[in-house]
Amino acid sequence: MANQARPPTKFSPKLPFTDGDGNHVYNTILLGLPPKDCLLVLSKLEFVRLKTHQVLHEPGDTLRSGYFCNTGLVSILTVFSDGKSVEVGLVGHEGFVGVPLVAGLRSAPTRAIAQIEGTAFRMDSETLIAVLRQSPRLERHLQQYSQNLAMQATQIAACNRLHEVDERLARWLLMSADRIGSNYVPLTQEFLAQMLGTRRASVTVAAGILQRAGLITHSRGNVKIIDRKKLEEASCDCYGMMQRQIRDWESDSH
Prior knowledge:
Order of helices and strands: HHEEEEEEHHHEHHEEHH
Number of helices: 9
Number of strands: 9
Strand content: 15-25%
């Protein structure tokens, strides 16, 4: 459905600011734009709600829209011919779903699924391509984010191959908490097993190790981080390596 004309966006002196319809904007890509660019981009966006397990695209789909994630959590999955899948990326309020569009590519190589319900700002692909021509700053931000996502995918692939399940679970919980801005992660062990590419029984054992150490509590469908510092210590090196690389790139871009 085509976006309707919106009143000019008014920027609040304190974050978060809102779009023309009064929806709070938390997406850091949008928040990082100069006011003129942000006004242009927000006028083309549609605010949408994402339900848990809602699929945004499947491998091979034509990408008809891009999503600036606002709240909640989206998983990026590689899907195999036998139907099995494994997570290769996480997208929260820092990110964007539909990065091939930034390079002028129209087909999706992965599945994107809402893991925790939330909201996003959606833009259809044709509009996005036109807006990128008008906003070099947005294009640059999305190019930089695509590099972050690619780095994340390669690190997660190595992590899944080399590290123990409890270390991987700690890394995954830290990444999720960063992206939703909360130490409370509402997910089942079955879904965690799918994300980590392992058996549910292995996740149960790993969660038990972290809980007995006083780092998390977990019950059916819920995980809460109790001691973040110690959880970082219990995680494999991958979390720290990704964080350092992101900080280095942020310094490079300034």
